[in-house]
Amino acid sequence: MPASAAGEGEERFLTRPLSVLLDFARFGAALLVVAGHSVQLHLYTGPFPFSGRLQHYCVIVFFVLSGLVISTSVLGGRSSLARYTLARVSRIVPVAVPALVFAALAAYVLAGPMHVRIDNSPDDPLLFAERILPPLAFVSAWPGMPAPVWNPPYWSLCYEVWYYAIFALAWFLRGWARALALIVACFTAGGAILLLMPVWLIGVALTHVPPARRLPLSVAPILLAASIFGAFALFEVDREVLNPLLRKVWFADPKWSAWAFSDFAMGLVMAAAAIALRPLAGLFERAIMATKPLAHGLAGFSFTLYLFHWPLIQLMRSWGLEAGASVPAFATLLVLVVALCALISILTERQTLHLRRWMEARFLKLRAKSPGSGAVAV
């Protein structure tokens, strides 16, 4: 995929004001996941207007946004496979590894007197290793591999890392090397992960489809309203119509891709909303850009919020901290989870840039010094 095919010389899909709005969307989706899991884990037992499908579809929003951001980041021909890899590693590792370690500590060490040992939390060291090593290697979606039992939301990362890798091979390699590498990577990733990859590629497509950048302003409110209606309508047909279809054509274990058809529909809804928001964001650019610091600050710890909230909720319950049916108490505990994750992000997401600079200074410098190396500048 040459850079010219990605719209070089044209305005990119991801404009500055749209990026701000999508930062708010990223944080909002993470917050809804936290709220949904608080109900699922009985931190709050009062009335709640959504089912467990809400937090799942929020992950689909993350997938579309991820594909869009990753695809945008390599436009213009200023990146390289080495720089791309270091950027992804420095983004994932500072949050993923601490999240898994913290979740294990929450299950074994930090839990309070009301704690009930989580299923599949063995005392045998070998069995413990079997539970924690697959998610650390992002292979929990492989057949026979255990789920990340102490931090279930981590499943999406076991998908997304493979999407990063497959996309990089397709973008940066050429000829037979690309074809062979893609075959090996797709085979290694496995069918369950590939089932949901079209959802992630919807975000990639937004950067390459010119009509997505040319929606008339007069049509934008109509499309936005239609996308909102489509999201609500999907809840009426996914479980009865779309989801059973997969079971008729896919006989292997789908892992977390059991809703692949409805997930793809939600991905299209999210893409339609982004297309509609683009011209509207341009119309209100000045007001939107004034909120950029807030949007950047909230999005800046949304990854930590997503990966740390589950063990935090478990810890609260183990120490007897629950909201019951009280809405004010529920709101207070949600604020507490968000605040704790914002503090944790100082040690996780906020270290991404430092780690990336260190890795680039060390590894790209060594690569540049090696004989025959030809590092490509970003």
From TrEMBL:
GO biological process, one term: lipopolysaccharide biosynthetic process
Ranges for domain Acyltransferase: 22-345
One MF term in the entry's GO annotations: acyltransferase activity, transferring groups other than amino-acyl groups
Pfam family, one: Acyl_transf_3
Spans traversing the lipid bilayer: 20-42, 54-77, 89-111, 157-173, 179-203, 256-281, 293-313, 325-347
Keywords from the UniProt entry: Acyltransferase, Membrane, Transferase, Transmembrane, Transmembrane helix
UniProt keyword annotation of Metal-binding present: no
Listed GO CC annotations: membrane
Name of this chain's protein: Acyltransferase
